[in-house]
Each structure stands twice: as C-alpha cells, then as structure tokens.
Write a structure and sequence with these properties.
The chain has 11 helices and 16 strands. By secondary structure, the chain is an alpha/beta fold. The strands form 4 sheets. An 8-stranded mixed β-sheet has the order 6-5-4-9-12-14-15-16, with helices on both faces.
Length: 252
C-alpha cells in the first residue's frame, strides 16, 4: 500500500469518525503502529491532521480541501489521459502557464515541445520542470500548504506583466450556470488573471468535477476549453467548449 493511499484512508476515516486512535488506524491500514505514527507526524507537519495522545483528528483546513498528495491518488487513470492530451496542446517556442494541481503536475512528464518557457505557481511543479531541464519561471506570493500553490494578489500582479500562448488550469468544480470554481479566493484570483493573459486557456477536469460547485468562481464556461474524458449532456447543451481525450471536440 502506497503512502498516498494510506493517507487517503486516514483522511477518509478521520472525516467520517472525527477522531481515530493509532490502534484503530493500524487495524484499518494493516500496517505497523510505527508506520501509522510516522504517517500522522508527516501529515500533521503538512497541516492535514492534528494529533493528540494516542490518535488524531482531521484539521479544519483539510476538511475544506484535500491536500494535493491525497488528490493525486484520485481518478488516476482519467487524470493521466487528460494530462497526456493537454501536453500535446503545447507547441514549440511557446510561453506556457501551468497551474498548480495534480493533473497539471501530471502533464510535465509528457511535454515534448521544444524551446518553451513555463510559468507556474505550483511548488512541486518547479522541481519536476527543473528535472526535465524545461526553462521555468517561479511566481511569488503567499504559499497555500494544503494545495502547495503560490497564490494571491501579489502572484496575480506578477502574472499581469506576462503573456501566455497557452494556459492550463486546475479546477475544483464546473457548474453549468456558474462556470469554473475553486475552493479558495486567492487561487481564484490567480487563475482568473492567468486566463485573461492567455491566448488559449484550457481547464483540465476529470469527470468528478462536473456539476460540482466550489465557493469561488474564476471564469465562465466560455472563457476556456475544458479538456476531459467525457462531458455530461447538460454541459453540451450549455454551449461549453470541450476537447475529449478520445479526440472529439465540441463548440470550438
């Protein structure tokens, strides 16, 4: 069992039960007490949970939005196909905005375009891009530990001084009437600004994101093309623009 999967089970258990003891988690995960304690210590450092003597409870931050480590474990097959499709949309010699998030992170290994420059607010993305020797510009501003993203007014101001040939955005929810939404106002500001500064903005969304509404909107459906595996009928009827991993496009 991978660490990501253990952490997902721990988070789900604490969300359902409010609290759990180390012994209870040992029984659920079927690993040693030492492994559970080590996982809980690492999760507490990332502000995902809060420990007490003999157990742990979910943190208020984690109850609002799962940590990126957890999100990277969800819908992996779907996210991989979206990441591959999105990476192919990058052409040689382009300026690229790559948003924070697990699916945009997954794009990095599949990028084949030459002579590009990537701008990103994603902290894990910086390391992955550097490992591939892709020229990268890091954005400045406050860091959100739970999403490992740099976001806010300062970040948006930096983006406003740039121009992107193409941009790839993460999303928490897509609503047929509200549009693209996320769970945090600072990240909404960053995403909205990047879309405005891009000639070809895309939103990467697995099927779980449709008909889901998060608190902060960062764009209308007409503001970007959705890259996904399938689109519900209600979104096709809404006029949303989309590009499916199988190759079919709509309203583009």
């Amino acid at each position: 069992m991978t660490k990501q999967f253990r952490w997902r089970l721990i988070t789900e258990t604490l969300t359902e039960r409010q609290t759990a003891t180390v012994d209870e988690l040992v029984g659920i995960l079927r690993v040693s007490p030492a492994t559970v304690r080590r996982d809980l210590a690492e999760m507490e450092e990332l502000r995902m949970i809060s420990r007490f003597h003999g157990g742990a409870r979910i943190s208020s931050i984690q109850s609002e939005e799962p940590h990126m480590i957890i999100k990277s474990e969800l819908n992996q097959k779907e996210k991989t196909s979206i990441a591959i499709k999105a990476a192919k949309l990058i052409s040689d010699d382009q300026m690229v905005f790559l948003d924070a998030g697990s699916t945009t992170f997954g794009m990095i290994r599949y990028i084949t375009a030459k002579n590009i420059t990537v701008v990103t607010p994603g902290i894990p993305h910086l390391t992955a891009l550097c490992e591939r020797d892709i020229p990268t510009i890091a954005l400045g501003g406050p860091v959100r530990p739970e999403t490992q993203a740099i976001a806010g007014r300062q970040t948006a101001e930096m983006i406003e001084s740039m121009y992107f040939d193409v941009a790839f955005m993460g999303v928490n929810g897509i609503h047929e009437k509200i549009g693209f939404t996320t769970s945090n106002e600072s990240e909404a500001i960053t995403k909205q600004t990047a879309i405005a500064r891009s000639t070809a903005p895309y939103v990467l969304a697995d099927s779980s994101k449709f008909s889901h509404l998060s608190p902060f909107a960062f764009g209308k459906l007409e503001d970007a093309v959705i890259v996904t595996t399938s689109v519900p009928d209600s979104f096709i009827e809404s006029g949303a623009r989309y590009l499916l991993t199988g190759g079919r496009a709509g309203n583009i």
